[in-house]
Amino acid sequence: MKAVFIGPPGAGKGTYASYFSRKYCIPHISTGDIFRDEIAKGTELGEIIKKYIDKGELVPDDIVIEVVKKRLNQPDTRNGFILDGFPRTLNQAKALDEITQIDVAVYIYVPIEIAIERLSNRYICPKCHRIYNLKFNPPKNDLRCDYDGEKLIRRPDDEPEVVKNRYKVYYEQSHPVIDYYRRKNLLIEVDNSSSAEIVVVLLEKTLIERGILKLKPCNPNVSIR
Ligand SMILES: [Zn+2]
Hints:
Layout: E1 2-6, H1 13-24, E2 28-30, H2 31-41, H3 44-54, H4 61-72, E3 81-84, H5 90-99, E4 104-109, H6 112-120, E5 122-124, E6 131-133, H7 160-183, E7 187-191, H8 196-209
Residues 125, 127-128, 130, 145, 147-148, 150 line the site of zinc ion.
C-alpha cells in the first residue's frame, strides 16, 4: 500500500501512520522526522533545512521533494509506505506523481479546539517516534517511553498559539492538495473527533474492502497506541 496521510496538525495522522506501519511492516515516512534527524546529525542538508526553520519559514518544495525522492528509493519501500505530512502543497503532490503512483490519500481531520487540546498534551519519543498524550494515553513511567525508556519531549510548535497559526497555514496551503486527490478519486476522509480505537477499525476495513490494503499483517496484534 502506497499511502499518503494528510491532515492538519493535531488530527492524529502520525498515530494512524504509526499503527499501519507497525502492523503491516511498511515504513512510516515523516518529512518532519527526516528533517529533525538531518539537523541533529549536522549534515549539509540539515544545515540548509535549519536555516529555514530558524527563520520560521517553510522548507522550500524542491528540497522537500528531493528528500522524499531519496527516501522512496530505499529498498524497504518495495511493499509500500506511508507518507506522513507530505505532500503539503499542490506542487509537492504533483511532484510525488512523477516519483510514484500512490494508492490512497487518507485525509484525517478534527476541529481546531480538539487539535489544540491534543497537541498541548502531546509528548513524543525522540528515539522511536511513538506519540503519547498525557491525558488520553500517558506513558507508564513519568515522561519516559514505555518501549525504550527514552525521555519524552514536547515540540515547541505544539504550544497552543503556534498550533492556531499552523492550523490556519495548513488549510491555506493544503486545500488544493485535498481537492486534487478528491478529483483523482484517491481520497478517503476520516473524522477523527471520536475515539481513535474505533476510527482505526473503520479505516482499516475501508482500505481492505476497497482493495487498497492487500498486505497480510506482520504484527497482527498491534494496537493504535
Ligand atoms: Zn521510544
